[in-house]
Amino acid sequence: MREDANPIPVSQSRSIMTELVFPTDTNHHGTMFGGTVMKYIDKISAIAAIRHCRKPVVTASTDSMDFVSPIRMGEAVELEAFVTWTHRSSMEVYVVVRAENLFTGERRVTVTAFSTFVALNEQGKPTAVPPVMPGNDQERKLHDSAPERHALRMKRRQERFSTADSETTDDDRKL
Ligand SMILES: CC(C)(COP(=O)(O)OP(=O)(O)OC[C@H]1O[C@@H](n2cnc3c(N)ncnc32)[C@H](O)[C@@H]1OP(=O)(O)O)[C@@H](O)C(=O)NCCC(=O)NCCS
């Protein structure tokens, strides 16, 4: 399917989500919990990945995430996600998170992140997805740089497998 599938424009997967930050979303500094931001990132990325391939997906991994500025109570948090590149069954999703002071209109980027999602078939096995057709300079830049990030992820995955194997006890293997 992969080779002859029509490329999907980034506009099909581009997804936006806006939330208001309430006291229950914040810590004792009055800034948003990192875990809550991560949950939103996972959710909007999954929507973008499903819009790209129109199949069920699972999160395979998330690259490191840098929180460059805090998000404060009462601000709006806006997440924008789209699929940048695909391999066979996997899709790289880019997310940018912005905070907005609703009274002044000041907006700033608080987090950017890349995640990888894998499409599954009816048997729950990885299945091929169509390629991406970038449409503007930002989309092309992210598309062209993706194979390098993919190679790093595959290297990291290999290293994690070795660590997980060395952590597995005989009792774990019996389960
Ligand atoms: C992700 C998962 C489907 C991969 O299955 P698998 O049996 O290892 O399959 P494969 O080795 O054939 O890999 C399938 C694809 O996943 C990609 N992949 C697997 N692990 C990955 C990782 N850690 N990071 C990035 N991509 C990964 C592979 O590169 C491959 O991509 P490709 O088809 O585009 O080349 C499987 O590990 C899984 O189900 N993990 C749990 C997912 C989950 O529960 N997520 C949280 C809730 S949604």
Verbal overview:
The structure is a single chain. This protein has helices at residues 10-13, 34-53, 137-167, 170-174; strands spanning 8-9, 15-20, 57-62, 66-67, 76-86, 90-100, 107-119, 132-133. It is of the alpha+beta class and 175 residues long. It has one domain: Roll (Thiol Ester Dehydrase, Chain A), CATH 3.10.129. Strands 2, 3, 4, 5, 6 and 7 form a six-stranded antiparallel β-sheet that branches. A two-stranded parallel sheet has the order 1-8. A hairpin with a 3-residue loop joins strand 5 (76-86) and strand 6 (90-100). The radius of gyration is 18 Å and the shape is globular. The mean pLDDT is 94. The structure holds coenzyme A. Coenzyme A is lined by residues 58-61, 87-90, 116, 118, 126, 153, 157.
Tell how many strands the DSSP assignment holds. Answer: 8
The biggest sheet amounts to:
6 strands, antiparallel
Span of the ends, CA to CA:
37 Å
Number of structural domains? 1
List the keywords:
6-stranded antiparallel beta sheet, EC 3.1.2.20, 175 residues, alpha+beta, Thiol Ester Dehydrase, Chain A, binds coenzyme A, HotDog_dom_sf, two-stranded parallel ribbon, globular, Acyl-CoA thioesterase, 34% helix
